Protein: Phospho-N-acetylmuramoyl-pentapeptide-transferase
Organism: Streptomonospora mangrovi
Amino acid sequence: MTGILVAAGLSLLVSLLSMPLVIRILYRFKFGQEVRDDGPEGHKTKQGTPTMGGIVIILGAIIGYFGSHLVLMTRPTVSGLLVVFLFVGMGAVGFLDDFIKIYKRRSLGLRSGAKMLGQTIVGAGFAVGVTQFPNGYGYTPASPQLSFLRDFGPPLMIGVFVLWALFLIVGFSNAVNLTDGLDGLATGAMILSLVAYVIIGNWQLRQSCVAYLSPSCYPVRDPLDLAVVAAACLGGCIGFLWYNAPPAKIFMGDTGSLALGGLIVGLAITTRTQLLLLIIGGLFVLITLSVMIQISSFRLTGKRVFRMAPLQHHFELKGWAETTIVIRFWIIQGLMVGVGVGLFYLEWMPR
């Protein structure tokens, strides 16, 4: 538990204290947000707001994670390092996307094929890695199975598992990217999801098959270190939200959204809660579905279901204030996280 607190505290301090300097540097080099011409009219005022703030979240999380191990004189685990690899790798892809947008002064960065290639390389490396490195009990960071509250069903062929993992990684990294359309929206929703994974990792540690074998124990390789990773990223996001809250002084950009989307998938795969992520990350799923529904409806019928997609912009065009949308969407995400954590604990409830 000490490691969790140290990681979150260090990351929070780094994020809070470094953000003003980062904002000044980004302003000096004119690394500002390019706003879409067809976006809501109110977004025109956000033109030029510094972006790529996800760099600070990543920096804070890395210092928090490794600093925690340094303070407590413990070694990082393979599971933790693989999730950090996915987190940083996806952030690197997002950084390239952001840099191209800024350099070419346009709202589109990497071409879709190049962006997908980068996500695939990083995601495939993670997916293969988590099926390797067994510990003394034979537990690998993840197993090539589907999971909800724990693994179920027969093992998948490694190729099928990698494709499944890539589907989740690409899907959620882009889902967080779509959600990051209003000040503080994606950051606040991600904070709630990360709280859930701190709780899940801590509970799995207390019921770990490594500590004692029982019919209901969790064969998770490194549950405590996964909670430390989640806590480190949680602290970074809280510090970032201080400056990203409406009206935002900085945006996370694709650097942050792709990194955080990859992160929660990495945590879901290594804690054996892949399908539970659809609930814990429920807001990201709903917003992505709104885009899919909008595109499908327009192509099939020529009509739009929403005034604009993603969903948050629909309510903007209906006249809702930006802060109203953000807070109400946070409430929805909080309820979804509550349901997800409740389901996780359900099998331990007295019957």
Q: What stands out?
A: The chain has one domain: 2-276. Strands lie at 146-147, 151-152. The two ends are 29 Å apart (CA to CA). The chain has a mean pLDDT of 90.
